[in-house]
Specification:
about 190 residues, Alpha-Beta Plaits, five-stranded antiparallel sheet, elongated, Large ribosomal subunit protein uL10
Length: about 190
Amino acid sequence: MVNTKKKEQVDSLKEIIANSPNFALIGFGNIAHQNLEDLRKKIRKLSAKIKVVKNTLLSKSLSKLASEDKKYDEVRKQSENLKDKTALLSLDKDYSEALKAILEFSKTNENITFKFGLLDGEMYESEKLSKIASLPSIDQLISKLIYMFRYSSSKFYFTLKTPISKIINILKSDQLVSSNPKEVINNG
């Protein structure tokens, strides 16, 4: 009876990981239940889910996945060394906001840390996950890029406009009326 329950849990974890394009494992120590529920609600709004898992069952589900798909091989090896409490963070294709939310939450609660994760088919250690979480979102980068294009195009326009107006002012000036062209060059 117990074995079938554990097998079902392993299969459930395997299905969650296989159906999730990206995932990360989070370590959490002594954290209040209410804080974990607040984190779950925040993460759910960002198209991500968090599930507390047993390390042995997670390792078994990753072993099954690694036998079917080689991209899970490195993750399986890493999961063998898991200790402490672990939560599985299943992420959508746009995982930056959810990772950012975990990072922000970890600043107020030291017991939350990244362990490792699989993002876009590549495994990342905790330090790299933290760096990825601190990067600006795609929307922020797009808005900065649009601003740069608008700013540079307006700057280019005024750069082109300025020399023409200077040439027109020189042509209109009385210096061109002078009989000696060297005077115009030396005075201009």
